[in-house]
Design brief:
nucleotide-binding; alpha/beta; cytoplasm; 12% strand; kinase activity; Cytidylate kinase; binds cytidine-5'-diphosphate; 51% helix; Rossmann fold; kinase
Length: 204
């Protein structure tokens, strides 16, 4: 079966948590496309040109807690405005989306650009304050951040860059289901998502 679930939304909205839970539940493969941009961003912090980095990414580049740091997140959102960087990453994402057995991809432009024909599109969001609070808890546990204010500033700066870039800006696809998790816990969000998915699943 080929079945693509596209999950987009702003930073720390709960896309990854939801995507993993959906993929587990359905036995689908999962791709965190943010990691591709984070890996390219991390290479630019080491002095590699962004376009070159995007063209030669390997699986090992997508590993490690260091990719989760706010510095790498900012670098990711800066390389993500470059059309050549985005273009270099398209084929891999599309091939992943159409693999046999079903796939869940999360990011910013999955439902709008990468997989405009995805069987299900979700746009996961929450207020900036809630998202920053969740991300702060996560990163302070790993010793990767010092203050809530820094995390909020990172989230706001990335949201702004992601929504206002010319190429593949962050926005809901016209046919996306909007899922605001500001007051939903993870099981609650999963229930809404699975309902939306079930409506599109072939019955056999
Ligand atoms: O992938 P994305 O950046 O959108 O978010 P995430 O990494 O899935 O979630 C960020 C943090 O928020 C994680 O620590 C989740 O456990 C938490 N979360 C939550 O508390 N409630 C939700 N409904 C969704 C996520
Ligand atoms: O986990 P979080 O939502 O904080 O970020 P991420 O999904 O790992 O994405 C990091 C950055 O990569 C984003 O701020 C975007 O600038 C960029 N990105 C993108 O442009 N397109 C995607 N499909 C995924 C990420």
């Amino acid at each position: 079966m080929r079945f693509t679930i596209a999950i987009d939304g702003p930073a720390a909205a709960g896309k990854g948590t939801l995507s993993k839970a959906i993929a587990d539940r359905l036995g689908f493969a999962y791709l965190d496309t943010g990691l591709l941009y984070r890996a390219v961003g991390a290479k630019t912090l080491q002095g590699v040109a962004a376009i070159e980095a995007a063209q030669v990414l390997v699986a090992d580049d997508l590993d490690g807690d260091a990719l989760r740091s706010p510095d790498v997140a900012q670098a990711a959102s800066k390389v993500a405005v470059l059309p050549e960087v985005r273009a270099a990453l398209v084929d891999f994402q599309r091939a992943f989306a159409r693999r046999a057995g079903g796939a869940v991809l999360d990011g910013r432009d999955i439902g709008t650009v990468i997989c405009p024909n995805a069987e299900v599109k979700l746009f996961v969001t929450a207020s900036a304050d809630v998202r920053a609070r969740r991300r702060f808890l996560e990163l302070s546990d790993k010793g990767l951040v010092t203050s809530f204010e820094d995390v909020l500033a990172d989230v706001r700066a990335r949201d702004d860059r992601d929504m206002n870039r010319a190429e593949a800006p962050l926005k809901p696809a016209k046919d996306a289901v909007i899922l605001d998790t500001s007051t939903l816990d993870i099981p609650g969000a999963l229930r809404v998502a699975l309902d939306a998915i079930e409506q599109q699943m072939p019955t056999s």
